[in-house]
Design goal:
- The complex is a heterodimer of chains A (148) and B (138).
- Chain A has 148 residues and is mainly α.
- Chain A is built from seven helices and no strands.
- Helices cover 66% and strands 0% of the residues of chain A.
- Chain A is flat, with a radius of gyration of 20 Å.
- The N and C termini of chain A lie far apart (69 Å).
- With 138 residues, chain B is α/β, with parallel strands linked by helices.
- The chains are: A mainly alpha (148), B alpha/beta (138).
Amino acid sequence: MATLFELLATLDELDSSGDVKATSVRMPEALHQAVAIATELGMAESFTAATNDALASRVRAFARQRALAAHLARFPQDQPDLEAVVRRRVSGTDHPAALHEQVTVAAAQRYEQRHPDWAVSGDVDHAVEQVLELVEMLVEMPVPAATA
Amino acid sequence: MAAPVRHLVLDNEAVSALLATTSQHAKRAQVLEAIMSANGRTVVPTAVRCEALWDRTQHVAAAANLHVREDDPLDPDAANRNVQLRKAVPAASLVDASVVVSAERLRDGGVVEVLTSDPGDIAALAGHADVPIDLRTL
């Protein structure tokens, strides 16, 4: 059975090896066309490069997710609060979450209550992105006019 | 709005914490928070690995190997930059300067965090770096 260590070692080879292997993939026709158009518009050097970049990015994200899950399975006491991770992610940026700390903390706590397994699943980046989207939405909402 | 990108460079104490195998370790928990927060690249300078005795081939390194795959080597360009920084901050060590050189190499518009237990000399080096560094203390 494949292991996380094999996956990580293979990803390391990806960075250093120029070997290529031809493969055929069945994909929705519309997706095929969309990638071709996006490539023409400058998204990537070629259809192959676009496909490889997307796949590599997906596999790396999965490996990170599994690595974090494995760590927390072994050392559950190491789990941080989501609000701390979110605030650190945006620190030094001009993202609204960096400028509205109270909103960010509240959004992170709300997400954490609804998804208590956000960390042990390892899908930390998804959790952070969800909180950041919620903060963006909240700070951009118009303030209701005061009623007489 | 574009998603924030955060890179991470680990110094000696952070690496040592990551190599710890005790069930509870406050500094290792802080390092994990930093790793979770970094959605860009997480690197360790090879000089730091030497100082922290991190041999990737040893079983004890398994947990650390999971999270930090990328070594930043002390190659000729890095050596030149290391010397320039150490001349600017004579009290700084080779390892301290390696951390700042690695931070400079990560510049791509994202925020670069350096996680260290000894911020004094690195803060002085960061003042000479050509990239803003978010210095965090363990």
